[in-house]
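Anyone able to model this chain together with flavin-adenine dinucleotide?
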Amino acid sequence: MAVTVTGRSGDTTFDLIVVGLGAMGAAALYQAGRRGLRVLGIDRHHPPHTLGSTHAETRITRLAVGEGPQYLPFVARSHEIWRQLEHESGEALLHQCGGLIVTEERPVPGQRWRDFVVETDRIARSAGIDFAVLDGEHDRRVPAVLRGLAGKRIGHEPSAGLVMAERAVAVQLARAAELGAIVTTGERVTAVRPDATGVEVVTERGRHRAEHVVLSAGPWLPDLIGGGDAERLRVTRQAVFWFEVDDPDRYGADEFPFVMWIGGDDAEYLGVFPILAGTTPALKVLGEQFVTDTHPDTVDRTVAAGEIADFHRRLVEPRLVGVRPTCVKAEVCLYTNTPDDHFLIDRAPDSDRITIVSPCSGHGFKHSAALGEAIVEDLSTGRSALDLSPFGRHRFETGR
Ligand SMILES: Cc1cc2nc3c(=O)[nH]c(=O)nc-3n(C[C@H](O)[C@H](O)[C@H](O)COP(=O)(O)OP(=O)(O)OC[C@H]3O[C@@H](n4cnc5c(N)ncnc54)[C@H](O)[C@@H]3O)c2cc1C
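re: yes, here you go
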């Protein structure tokens, strides 16, 4: 097993150990570095990598978060942090190309996305965020390459866009190391044991000690935490496809916003991502499935020709003009969902020194930079400027 260590850990008792350095762990490590904490980050793989939940180049970000008002301050602050990181690193991370949301006029009751344009509009209005429900498919903000929009409800947010997922992780890890964080990769944590004076983190290679531990192991989190929290987390396989297009300029970020097209049922969701300079020169699209659970160590990571052809026939061809069935690349990525699709961020039931962080649920990336800041702030001072309490397990325990 390849092991990479940046910095020296020696016999230090750290202020903080971060277990798992994907979107969440990288953000927490960077923020701990900024606060001058003695911090160690450990990852079983070599992030950014393609085995967890933070790959496939880009993530959608929306300031008008239809998932709920509790998220609004996190995405807004994350945008500020990414701009700051761009300034510090010289890398472009946030592309505000705008975004469209498309739903049925009358969404089917029980659907996961509910009435998402209406819900997003309501939340945007209450917070003064620029979001418009369009008059119809002929609005100039609707690209001509979309078809089948008659009778759909369409919402547009000009400040929405894409974040570079792996690059954001890489930049935060690099900045954390520059600020003094120690990063060790290719090292798997096997146990986390709180005691009277701190927390012992046991790995395949040794032991480390810290005052506090953040557990941000993504889809592997259930293996580390066990108990009721683990039972609440469900991991599902999601496929991402890049298809050839006739005219790449028509799908470039200058012409084309991202599109979240929510169909009549959950299996008809289609996410479409504009082609950005420096990314795979093809159209990235994805769906969602919640039928089969999986585990990151055993998930089928091959995307078969039949799966590609089926996706193109069902969801791409009827909705997008000039997208060929030739798939130049496909990747498997993992969602980790709670029963209500909201995040699980809370102290461990048996120790205040351990914070469990699961923001996956398919919509976590856009909030990750600010969540990292709030979690480190909370551990360091006992409170955070942004309110993490809506993400606590109390909502499951009280049945709310
Ligand atoms: C296909 C797809 C599309 C998505 N689209 C969007 C989107 O458009 N917008 C959005 O906001 N969000 C989106 N999300 C959600 C978002 O990507 C996730 O919320 C986020 O990436 C989760 O990051 P994480 O740090 O929790 O997990 P991960 O990135 O998986 O990181 C976990 C890390 O922990 C490490 N690890 C695990 N176990 C151990 C161990 N025992 N010891 C040491 N290290 C360990 C792993 O190697 C890994 O690096 C999407 C997710 C997927 C899968």
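Residues 19-25, 42-45, 47, 52-54, 56, 59-60, 188-189, 216-220, 224, 238, 240, 286, 333-335, 359-360, 362-366 surround flavin-adenine dinucleotide (CB under 6 Å).
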